[in-house]
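I have a small job for you when you get a moment. Would you make up a two-line entry for one protein for me to read? No commentary is needed, just the two lines. Write everything out right here, beneath this request.
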Amino acid sequence: MSKADQSWVGHSTNLVGLPTLFLASCDFNDAPMPLRISGVREFNPELFEMLAEAATPGEAAQAFLLYMDALFAIDPEQRRETPPGRPRRYRASFLDLIRGWGFDSNGAEGAVLKGWVESRFGLFPTYHKQPIRRISSPIWTTYVEEKMSSRFHNNSIHAQLDLLYEFCQWALAKFFAPGVEHLTLHRGVNALEDHTVFERRGEGLVTLRFNNLVSFSSDRDVAGCFGDAILTVRAPAAKILFFNELLPSHPLKGEGEYLVIGGDYRAQARSL
């Protein structure tokens, strides 16, 4: 990887305690370490005490949603409550962001999610509506304007996403993938050239850079509906932000869909 490519990876600092270049690298993906967003578990001990009492994934999801309702009033009924004579106040919810991502990952909700990844993990987005080649570009300005929209930053949205990530990591370790470091996931693409490809080897093996947040599917057939080729990766469990089975109501449209922190990955590319 060239120095120019390295310099575009992200910030020199993040909130997970590892160098951003390492976090973005294939070396991390090959031998991942557990990641913790600084202070989240320490400042929310009540949540993890509640989760410790959960005997099933459903009970854990209910405990998590109750805790989020108490802190951020994300329940739809609570969000409709306003004093008489006062305009209704929109309260941003992580559920709205994930639902918006499911419809259009390049919309305003997608920008906020990519901005959270940038803030917590240090990784720059590489695509938002168009490829992002440099910080001084107009498309970068559009991304910054959308990620900072006051519509989504009136209810501690980054704190909500911090808790979602930590809950997802807890649930993977407890119920969905205990002791598992990697999940095999698939992504449909129309053109491999839409990604920065660093290396091509035989049998369709490539090393490429994904956006700082990217959708995958655990179902290869589902991934095949979204492109002419399928990229298969071994995604570190530590890089998973959300998957549909995590909560009883599924904000994402695709079956078996996962939201995964991006960076550089080794992948196998297969044409359909």
